[in-house]
Amino acid sequence: MSSPIVPEMTLSALLQASPSVGDVLLASVPGLAALRHPVLCDAVARTSTIEQVARLGGVNVDELVAKLRTAAGVGAVAMTGSNAAGGAPRWLAPERVRHEIDGGAMLEAGVHPIGKVRELTAGLAPGDMVRLITPFRPEPLLAAMRNAGFDVFSSEVGAGRHETYIRRPE
C-alpha cells in the first residue's frame, strides 16, 4: 500500500489502495452495512473520511485506523507523513506558516473562509503553509484543498478550537 492510512483518508482512497480492508471496515463500524450496495458505497466512499465514519459510528478513530493498518499489512512505521502515534505529520513546521486565518471570525461575519484560503495558498512557495483556526473541523474545506493537491492536517487543540494546516507540497 503506497498511501498511509490516516483519519483524513477518504473511504474511496482506502478501498482503492487496499480493497482487502473493506470487510474489516464494515465489521468495525456499525451502520456501514449500506456500503454493501454498490451505488451507496460509491456515493459514501467518495465523500466520507475514516474519521467521519468512525465518529458517526461511535468508534474510536485511532483504534479503527490501527485495525485498518493491520488488515492492510502496514504499521505505524509505514506512515511517512506522521509520527508513530498518528499525530501531526512530519511536514508540519510552524515556522513555515506564512498566513493565519481566523475562520471563526469570518464565519461570524457571514463570509466563508474558503475563498481566502484559496487566495493565500495560491501564492505559497513549496513547503509553506496557511493555518486556519475554526470552531469545528472544516471537512469540506479539507477535501477541497486535498483535491487541489495540497497537504492538509487538522486537529482539535481545545474545546471548540481546530487548527488546520494547508501546505503546498515540496
Name some characteristics of this structure:
170 residues, alpha+beta, SP0561-like, Rossmann fold, 2 domains, four-stranded mixed beta sheet, 40% helix
What does this structure look like?
This protein has 170 residues and is α+β, with helices and mostly antiparallel strands. The protein has two domains: 68 residues, SP0561-like (Orthogonal Bundle), CATH 1.10.3910; 74 residues, Vaccinia Virus protein VP39 (Rossmann fold, 3-Layer(aba) Sandwich). The protein has a four-stranded mixed beta sheet. A hairpin with a 2-residue loop joins strand 3 and strand 4.
Domain module tally: 2
Main beta sheet, described? Answer: 4 strands, mixed
CATH architectural name of the largest domain: 3-Layer(aba) Sandwich
Share of helix, binned: 40-55%
Query: What is the alpha-carbon Rg in Å?
Result: 16 Å
Poorly predicted runs are 76-86
First and last CA, distance: 22 Å
CATH topology of the largest domain: Rossmann fold
Overall 3D geometry?
globular
CATH superfamily of the largest domain: Vaccinia Virus protein VP39
What secondary-structure arrangement, pairings included, does this model have?
Elements: H1 11-17, H2 22-28, H3 38-47, H4 50-57, H5 61-72, E1 97-102, H6 103-108, H7 114-122, E2 129-134, H8 139-147, E3 151-158, E4 161-167
Parallel strand pairs: 1-2
Antiparallel strand pairs: 2-4, 3-4
Helix pairs in contact: 1-3
In short:
Helix content is 40%, strand content 16%.
